[in-house]
Amino acid sequence: MVALALILLPVLFVMGLLTTNFAVQTKSEGVVDAAHAGEMVLERWKARPFAEVQLLLGAPPLVTQELVGSRLYDCSLTVMPLTPSGLNPVGDVLVLGVEVTWRNQAGLGDGGTRQEQLQSTTLTSVISPGGSL
Amino acid sequence: MRSSARGAALLSVLALTVILLMMVAVLVKRGETGLYRSSRYRDGLQATQAARGGSNHLIALLTAQGNYSTAQNVSLGNSRYSFTFDTTQEFFSVNNLNNAAPSSQLSALGRTVGPYSADLLVVGQCGTQRKVAHLLVQRGLSSSGSVNAVGRVNLLGSVEVSGIKSVLPPAGQADPEPAAGGIVSKHRSASAGDPSIAWDGTGTFTLTPLSRLEAAPILSGGVPVSANLEALFPDSIIRSASADTIPQLDVTGLVTAGQTNPPLPGVGGVRSGYVYVPTDYSHGGDLTVNGNLELIGGGSLYVDGDLEVNGSVSGTGALYVSGNITVRGGDAVVSTSEPGGTALLAGGNVTLEGLDASGYLDTLAGSYGFSGDVTRLRQLLGNYTTASAPGDFWGLAADIGKHDGPFAGHNSYISPIPGPDGTHNQGFANAASVKVALAIKSLHPGYSTDLRAQKVVRALERLQYHFRHNLHTVAHNGVDFVSQSGSTTYSLTDDYQLQDSSGAVVPPSAFDFPPNAMAGDEWDDRNYPEPRHSHDHLGFGGMPFLIITIRSTSIGWGSLLFRVWSTPGVIFR
Predict the structure, then answer these.
(1) Mutual angle of helices B360-368 and B371-386, in 10-degree steps
(2) How far, in Å, are A34, B93, B221, B446 from residue B80 at the CA level?
(3) What pLDDT does B473 receive?
(4) Which of A1-10, A25-34, B153-162, B193-202 bottoms out in mean pLDDT, i.e. has the lowest?
């Protein structure tokens, strides 16, 4: 029994570490892909005529799903005027924010069930009537 | 024996465990490194977006206030951007937008900042990542495409799409220097029958090597260009024109603000002949110009209504029109970048209808009996191409543009095209080019409604202009022609003669004997680009360009309907 325990304990320990390592790798890929998903949404809207972007001002977040790699990312776009007003006297300088959320496999939970963790990252930019770089 | 076996097993397990732990440690370290790198990469993207966003903000501030020079440090949550004009800082900007001379302050990269320009550096930061955006900004209008359209672009007939750096060719060159041009449509196609850029397939379609057809990202089932263009230029189509932006321009607001300028001289909504815009003018209501619209020295015309030009639009300046712009039958040289260009900004649609007048000169000459005059003109032009002695060039230019034989007894001719100093030169009715133009106007009974014939005449006017003599000129103040002393005003008759306020035609003798009306010293135009020299100072043996036959419009829009937008005040590099 003791010998069996001596063998099983390291094996279980190693399995746990490997699972954690896999989760870390998955999270790394998720972070990069999520940033790309957010960038795609930002670029898409910066390429549209300014008036179309203005229509989103004050509206509820525009939620889309972007497929990057093999995973879907939920992207929530909000458009707000740049503040404080001293920086934006006319009010036509807009802040575009994209919050990207996705579910990440975190590891094994109680009873061997797979646990998922909600992850998110945010990309922000600014556009104006004369510039949408 | 049994105890030694147990000991060996224990040692084996321990050794195996150590090896496994080492492997796991390596894997965990790699995972951590990967996570760190991915976080840095994400922060880099955020810093880039912040720097670009800061650039957009700074452009807005400069657009509102040309001399803006206040440092800003703006937080965008987990990222931030900053810019400064403090030259003691590492990344500083230089604003020279309001100065006509190069800035005495070099840019952060040690370069000269040109007149009416700004060299901008915007720093974006996120976490440990820092990105710097470098922009060169100029006043004026610029556009990456020859045509930018918010909606669909429909092309009918023969079309040539090209880009040029300037309408003036480089010194010693015959043609303008090519540049990236093309058509940009922001229409998002939803079906194959609704392409963003469509061509009806009649005639020929020419796309210069540097030009592109750019369409906005298509919707499901859509196509960027029509199938015939796809087949002709598969490698010249950009399917997602996200890099080219078309900012919103409040054309109506600009026109409203422009109505405070003096009204366009003249009466009514229909004008004939040459209409000159040497300064900013306004016009309330629709305006029709049956002739040429000449923008001089950056003058702008603000029309609160529709503008129709049955002729050409040329010169340097801008047209702001709240409604539609239609340019029909002439060479509409549309350029959104200086020098020497015309910008059209319409709240509605822009229609440029080209007119192919090639070969029509011979038809007219045969129909109305002036083939001999055309033959003579071609003979002189042919001789010009083969002449070698400076005296021959001078004499041939005089024959073509000033007088072919003795000028005594012939009416004077005032070129309707202003020279680079804004004045109009004198010639005589027997100059070879003038003779043909006058023959068409006087012998063709349907001339006033024949747009092709009018186009041929305008080409002849340009021909005369390039062989003109810079002696005896009159200026134009936007309303009348005026003598060099400014004391007497005249109007131009349909056959290019000056008449005074009583309707009397100014005799040719008035030009030659001081102190008569237009007597004046020859002025030197050698400081102007060669294509604008008079024949006195043309580079003999290196004639900039020579028109032997009447060419069709240089930018051959068959028929084009589009909506023009332009980026105000910025050139991105």
Answers:
(1) 140
(2) 20, 17, 40, 68
(3) 80
(4) B153-162
Q: Count the neighbouring beta carbons within 10 Å of the beta carbon of residue B316.
A: 19
Q: Which residue of B has its CA nearest to A96?
A: B53
Instruction: Please tell me what DSSP assigns to residue B510.
Output: G
Specify the 3-state DSSP secondary structure of B414.
strand
- Name the E strands within B84-191: 94-96, 117-126, 129-138, 141-142, 147-149, 153-156, 159-161, 163-164, 178-179, 182-185
Peptide bond before B515: cis, by omega within 30 degrees of 0? yes
Total Cβ atoms within 10 A of residue B521: 10
Q: Give the number of other Cβ atoms within 10 Å of residue A60's Cβ.
A: 8
The DSSP secondary-structure symbol of B531 reads G
> CA B323 to CA B316: how far, in whole Å?
21
CA B128 to each of CA A122, B47, B297: distance values in angstroms, whole numbers, following the listed order: 16, 9, 50
Contacts with A131 from chain B: Cβ below 8 Å: 55-57, 59-60, 245, 247, 570
Cα B169 to the center of its chain, rounded Å:
14
Nearest to A66 by CA among A55, A75, A54: A75
Rounded Cα distance, B401 and B461, in Å: 9
Q: In this predicted structure, what is the pLDDT of residue B528?
A: 52
CA dist B338 to B143, B157, B295, Å?
A: 11, 29, 13
Whole-number Å distance between alpha carbons of B304 and B323: 7
Residues B42 and A121: their CA atoms lie apart, in Å, by 9
Measured between alpha carbons, how far is residue B74 from residues A82, A84, B50, B150 in Å?
9, 10, 9, 32
Would the pTM count as exceeding 0.90?
no
Q: How far apart are CA B295 and CA B276, in angstroms?
A: 6
Spatial distance between the Cα atoms of B56 and B48, rounded to a whole number of angstroms: 12
pLDDT confidence of residue B556? 30
- Name the amino acid, one letter, at B235: D
**What's the one-letter identity of residue B49?**
Q
Nearest CA in chain A to B571: A131
Between the two ends of chain A, the Cα-to-Cα distance in Å is 68
Q: What is the per-residue pLDDT across B237-276, written as a single tens digit (0 to 9) for each?
A: 887 665 445 555 678 888 999 999 999 988 889 887 778 8
Nearest CA-CA distance, residue A111 and chain B, Å: 24
Cβ-proximal residues to A129 (8 Å cutoff; 6+ apart), any chain = A50, A92, B60, B63, B247, B248, B249
CB B67: neighbour CB atoms within 10 A?
10
Q: Report whether pLDDT(B188) > 60.
A: yes
In angstroms, rounded to a whole number, what is the distance separating the alpha carbons of residues B309 and B287? 8
Cβ neighbours around A44 below 10 Å, total: 17
Q: What is the DSSP letter of B488?
A: -
pLDDT category of residue B27 using cuts at 50, 70 and 90: confident
Q: How many percent of chain B have pLDDT more than 70?
A: 74
Six token digits for residue B202:
């009649």
Nearest-angstrom CA–CA distance, B162 and B146: 7
Q: Comparing C-alpha atoms, which of B267, B243, B543, B303 is closest to residue B400?
A: B543
Chain B residue numbers with beta carbons less than 8 Å from the beta carbon of A3 are 6, 9-10, 13
Query: Is B49 close to A7, i.e. CB distance below 8 A?
Result: no
Instruction: Give how far B114 is from chain A: nearest CA, Å.
Output: 21
* Per-residue DSSP letter, B452: H
